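User: I'm preparing a small set of examples for a lab meeting where we compare how different chains pack in three dimensions. I only have the primary sequence for this one, and I'd like the structure in token form so I can line it up with the others. Please keep the answer compact; I'll paste it straight into my notes.
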Amino acid sequence: MADPERLKPNDFPVHANKKKIIKSDGEDIAEATTPAVAEDVAERLNEDEHRREEDRWA
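Assistant: Understood. Below is the structure token output for the 58-residue chain.
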């Protein structure tokens, strides 16, 4: 059974707004220490999900 706390494919792409990381539906999922860290984390999460989706189709 899926963990309800895990991100799901429809939660992407995520984005950063100041220090918050936000799912595609607008729900906050995390708060970083700085806006730069939030941007970096959001970018890495999106890249990881993109690779995961590509692997599914390969």
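A couple of notes for your slides: The two ends are 25 Å apart (CA to CA). Helices lie at 35-57.

User: Perfect, thanks.
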